[in-house]
UniProtKB/TrEMBL annotation:
Residues 1-29 form the signal peptide. InterPro entries: PepSY (IPR025711). The keyword Signal applies. Pfam families: PepSY. This is PepSY domain-containing protein. It comes from Bradyrhizobium septentrionale. It comes from the Bacteria.
Length: 200
């Protein structure tokens, strides 16, 4: 899923819907076929489309939703909130990779997509180990009323799909939630700006 997530968040070849919290309907949504979006553009940037298709098939077979995986990871540490989550169908078993923030620590968890169990223990790193921009984004996230789980709910409802990844992105000074949703055979990227994020 790392390749898919890079494609979705880095090069923005996937469909985009821009929303404003609190939770309005999409201002516009452009759908594109996942197969068309994932077709390699050149040899240097080639993606194995078959591997991506297998990853998406694995995601569709998952018994645990992305929102449920977030709730499981957050429940492991009192007061933890999710900063980033993505589906990893290449691992055995398929897992959600979740980063949660609790006070001055970032926790890394793998949640089994079939059972909801924590796989392979957990790892923590101090917030100070992150770069200044990432630390600043997490400070803003902590202060926001809306959480990543709220953004996932809105993205799924507005696209009639299932979220496959979600996280934070700062662009032109604005902190946004970015959710990638699988709706039918289409991948859609939904960007939501939480109220108050621009001013921080």
């Amino acid at each position: 899923m790392r390749a898919l997530r890079y494609l979705a968040l880095g090069t923005r070849l996937l469909a985009t819907a821009v929303l404003a919290l609190p939770f309005a309907a999409p201002a516009h949504a452009i759908t594109s076929s996942a197969a068309a979006a994932l077709t390699p553009r050149d040899n240097d940037n080639a993606l194995d489309v078959h591997a991506v298709r297998r990853e998406l098939d694995s995601f569709q077979a998952a018994q645990i939703s992305l929102r449920k995986a977030m709730a499981i990871a957050e429940a492991l540490h009192s007061g933890a909130i999710t900063a980033d989550i993505s589906f990893d169908g290449a691992s055995l078993p398929a897992v959600y990779r979740v980063k949660t923030m609790q006070q001055d620590r970032i926790w890394h968890h793998a949640i089994d997509a079939a059972t909801g169990e924590v796989v392979g223990g957990e790892a923590a790193s101090p917030l100070t180990s992150l770069g200044a921009e990432d630390r600043g984004n997490l400070v803003v996230l902590r202060a926001l009323r809306h959480r990543l789980s709220d953004a996932v709910r809105v993205a799924e409802r507005s696209t009639s799909g299932k979220a496959i990844s979600g996280g934070l992105m700062r662009e032109r000074g604005k902190l946004n939630f970015v959710i990638v949703v699988l709706a039918g055979s289409d991948l859609k990227e939904v960007i939501l700006e939480p109220p108050g994020a621009r001013r921080r």
